[in-house]
From TrEMBL:
Gene3D superfamilies: Ribonuclease Z/Hydroxyacylglutathione hydrolase-like (3.60.15.10). Residues 37-227 form the Metallo-beta-lactamase domain. InterPro entries: Metallo-B-lactamas, RibonucZ/Hydroxyglut_hydro. This is MBL fold metallo-hydrolase.
Length: 256
């Protein structure tokens, strides 16, 4: 039986790192951990895998980690960096001959239909393959791949974002406010993965100082910061972080 784990498929902010058009200091890009694809996660369960968000680099992320099947997909919200890789799910539909199950909040299902209208149209010429999505409301308790996820929402500016806890692991991408009801579910964690987009304040994300304060208040044994901009030079920054706090990186694997 597969040992449950979380795989950080992408640890970068919406621009990714390196960012298009930006010139980096000598040596910065020599560190592979400073190469960050857009934020997404895979949960590897005893009986199947859950994909959390579909970044524009989804195909590259999944093939890099040798992930060939997903039992379902969880979309946290429909900003471009979290959904523009959904077309890559087409090949899974071709292989299985059935739609991909996609869980998300009801208000985001309309966005997915608008972005990918061809995934919901039956009349295509013979030989044309398209992705197919079975959109479902995400329940408070989600059973996928032999894992049980407790679903809740946090705020990303004015946008609600799906977050979850599974066993002693929790994942909060794109967040600048954790409601009290959600914070109550984040006690006694072994590992927290949480947004810390940059050093200077941001209206819709935790910046570094906020993220450190929240991480220390929640008290997980280990907190990994994700959704990271090029503000962070991985090795140098990691060496200066408070005890129990680390930077996530693409390909990081965490026992769940």
């Amino acid at each position: 039986m597969t040992r449950p784990e979380a795989v950080i498929l992408g640890s970068g902010t919406s621009n990714g790192v390196p960012m298009l058009g930006y010139e980096y200091p000598p040596g910065y890009l020599d560190d592979p951990k400073n190469h960050r694809t857009r934020s997404s996660l895979a949960l590897i369960g005893p009986t199947g895998n859950l994909l959390v968000d579909c970044s524009p680099e989804l195909r590259l992320q999944a093939t890099r980690e040798n992930l060939t099947r997903f039992e379902a997909v969880l979309i946290t919200h429909t900003h471009a960096d979290h959904v523009m890789g959904m077309d890559d799910l087409r090949s899974l539909c071709v292989l299985t001959r059935r739609p991909v199950t996609v869980y998300t909040l009801p208000q985001y299902q309309g966005d997915i239909r608008r972005i990918y209208p061809y995934a919901f149209v039956d009349l295509h010429p013979e030989g044309i393959e398209v992705p197919r999505f079975d959109l479902r409301d995400v329940p408070e308790t989600l059973e996928v791949g032999g894992l049980t996820l407790r679903i809740f929402t946090v705020m990303h500016g004015t946008v609600p974002v799906v977050a979850f806890r599974v066993n002693g692991f929790a994942y909060l991408t794109d967040v600048n406010l954790i409601p009290p009801s959600a914070e109550a579910l984040l006690q006694g964690l072994d590992v927290l993965v949480m947004d810390a987009v940059r050093y200077r304040p941001h209206p819709n994300h935790f910046h570094f100082d906020q993220a450190v304060e929240v991480a220390q208040r929640l008290g997980a044994k280990t907190t990994y910061f994700t959704h990271l901009s090029h503000d962070y030079d991985h090795t140098k920054t990691d060496a200066t972080l408070p005890p129990g706090i680390r930077l996530a990186y693409d390909g990081l694997r965490i026992p769940v």
